[in-house]
Write a structure and sequence with these properties.
mainly beta, OB fold (Dihydrolipoamide Acetyltransferase, E2P), 2 domains, five-stranded mixed barrel, five-stranded mixed β-barrel, elongated
């Protein structure tokens, strides 16, 4: 796991090593990882963790790409837990610091345990109720929502905590425009109709207001 310039900096001919099989090349040759076996205590810890297991730990570092977590029970001096920004919360956030902070105790569900990376990928939102499930019966309703993002093809509207829908540009106007930001702005409240909720792909399709129940 240390950075080296040449394999000879670490190995010598005739040396016996322990390595993990991580794949096979054409012709039957094995692809091996010595780094996966470099730290026996770490390897034992990682092999004992299965996807779906619930783990608790303490946040050590918060970055724009994710969060590093010291997991309970991991070998001393290591930090094996990692949470991607997308796995922190169902809500849209711009930075991981909007969801957690250094020193915070968190509990998540294991996505994967990787001996090669020496890392356990964890999801916090896997233990949280998906807000879209409760929102599924809103199809046909007219609602007010906040524009959170503007794309060339339409705007994303927040209708509830953790629930955003797409209003296509064609639903905003019949007139030709180059971009939706000629018509609306981020942070603006807008009235829309929930045209459909796709739970499988986690998509909410919006249309211009029409007949429906006001909420």
């Amino acid at each position: 796991m240390r950075r080296i310039a040449q394999p000879s900096d670490f190995f010598k001919g005739g040396q016996e090593i322990e390595a993990e099989e991580i794949g096979r090349w054409q012709g039957g040759q094995l692809e091996l990882s010595a780094r996966a076996c470099e730290h026996p205590e770490l390897r034992s810890f990682l092999l004992g963790i299965q996807p779906g297991r619930t783990l608790t730990g303490t946040v050590l570092e918060v970055h724009n790409f994710g969060v590093f977590v010291h997991l309970d029970g991991e070998p001393d001096g290591l930090c094996t837990g990692y949470v991607r920004v997308i796995d922190l919360t169902w809500s849209r956030i711009n930075h991981a610091s909007e969801a957690v902070e250094v020193g915070q105790r968190i509990t998540g569900q294991v996505i994967a345990s990787d001996t090669y990376q020496g890392q356990v990928t964890v999801s916090l939102k896997a233990l949280q109720e998906d807000p879209l499930i409760r929102f599924a019966d809103h199809t046909g309703r007219v609602m007010r929502g906040l524009i959170t993002n503007i794309a060339p093809f339409g705007v994303f509207v927040q209708l509830a905590d953790g629930v955003e829908g797409l209003l296509h540009l064609s639903e905003l106007t019949d007139e030709p425009v180059e971009s939706p930001d000629q018509l609306v702005a981020e942070g603006e409240l807008i009235t829309v109709r929930v045209a459909g909720v796709d739970l499988q792909h986690r998509r909410v399709r919006l249309s211009s207001p029409g007949s429906g129940e006001d909420v």
